Amino acid sequence: MRPGQFKPYYVYRFLRWKLGNRSPLTAVAKVTNNCNLRCDHCPWWRRDIEDASTEEWKRILKIVRDQGVIHLVLEGGEPTTRDDIDELISYAKELGMLVMLITNGLRDLKRHHPDSYWISIEGVGDTHDKNRGRGVFDKIVKNIKNNRDANIIVGATINRYNMDQVEEIASFFSPITDGVWFNFMYPYKKAHDIALNPSEQRVIARKIIQLKEENNIISSESYLRSVGMENKNCPSFLTTVIDADTTIRQGCTVEQIEECRCDVCSLGCYGELTQAMKLRLDAIEFLKKTAGLSSHRLLWLR
Ligand code: SF4
Ligand code: SF4
């Protein structure tokens, strides 16, 4: 597709994928492993990889855009600890990508201008602070309330510590954000004790489906119904993962840490992509909301 030429974008891409094309849709850029917190179960801040320079990141962003990426997820560690994060956001937008910034919500959200924010939470109140530090929960809630003009999604990864809080998470964050997203922790070797097993995941996923009626939960029912089942058709090629040193690997983010075990994986992002590739409309709606896509852009993106 030539620059400047408008097409029914997803129809075009979808048909190409069905014909065997393996171009990525999303790039998950781990722009740093540094973080302003030190959560117990987090593997990322423990890694010893040097961050790449601004110019190197710009070079890589251009490469993935040329490969077909339209949705850039900037994550860490904590991406806002990079002084050049706004420069990278602006550059990605200039290239035509929609930018989501995943953050722990501690830095002032007004400082940055992504298409959408994704604030990761552990739970409500003390459940959040137990892992992240005392007083952190109140700070991020204040930050969210001070930035209601931004597109803010709150994402909770369910594990043994917060599995009893799904109702509280949904009811607390639904009124003050643009949506609540639930994910299920992958049983990394370091997090094996706190990740739920597939049958426990299925019970919680059913509960979340019921909660969707009265709360602004954006996780699709199609994905939630697939939780705890073996994910045989994960289209992980749709994602390109870029490490902090700008090593690019197309495929699943788990591979950055250890060997994939798809039979116990219910990761939400890949689960939603799996459903979207089956043309489940609620999963496509999820992708639109998280990317900050309007229907017009979805159909007529360059
Ligand atoms: S805030 Fe996120 S990236 Fe930072 S240490 Fe905690 S889990 Fe890891
Ligand atoms: S481990 Fe999960 S995300 Fe990775 S390829 Fe398997 S199902 Fe997909």
Describe what you observe in this structure.
There is one protein chain. This protein has 302 residues and is α/β, with parallel strands linked by helices. It has a single domain, classed as Aldolase class I (TIM Barrel), CATH 3.20.20.70. Helix content is 35%, strand content 14%. The chain contains eleven helices and eight strands. An eight-stranded mixed sheet has the order 6-5-4-3-2-1-7-8. α6 links the parallel β5 and β6. The N terminus is likely disordered.
Tags for this model:
11 helices, alpha/beta, 8-stranded mixed β-sheet, TIM Barrel, 302 residues, 8 strands
CATH domain fold name: TIM Barrel
The counted number of beta strands is: 8
Strand content of the residues, in percent? 5-15%
CATH homologous superfamily assignment: Aldolase class I
- Measured on Cα atoms, how large is the radius of gyration? 18 Å
Q: What's the number of helices? A: 11
Major sheet: order of its strands?
A: 6-5-4-3-2-1-7-8
Fraction of residues in helices?
25-40%
Q: What small molecules does the structure contain?
A: iron/sulfur cluster
Question: What do the pLDDT scores average to?
Answer: 89
Count of the separate structural domains: 1
Q: Examine the secondary-structure arrangement and name the CATH architecture.
A: Alpha-Beta Barrel
Describe the biggest sheet? 8 strands, mixed
Dominant shape: globular
CATH class, please?
A: Alpha Beta
- What structural category arises from helix and sheet content? alpha/beta
Low-confidence stretches: 1-7
End-to-end Cα distance:
8 Å
- Taken in chain order, the helices and strands follow as HEHEHEEHHEHEHHEEHHH
